[in-house]
Write a structure and sequence with these properties.
transmembrane, membrane, 51 residues, PMP3, mainly alpha, 82% helix, YqaE/Pmp3 family membrane protein
């Protein structure tokens, strides 16, 4: 995982997920979790982009 990805995971989780996976279910889940709360969005982004 690059430094840019880590920074985006923290600041803008949906953008980080979009850059790796494009628009799809994973992106929509990331947006939903970020809207519910910033921390769940960050955790999801790290899990999704960790592989």
């Amino acid at each position: 995982m690059s430094l840019i990805t880590i920074i985006l995971n923290i600041l803008l989780p949906p953008l980080a997920v979009f850059m790796k996976h494009g628009i799809g279910t994973t992106f929509l889940v990331s947006v939903l979790l970020t809207l519910i709360g910033w921390i769940p969005g960050v955790i999801h982004a790290f899990i999704v982009n960790g592989d």
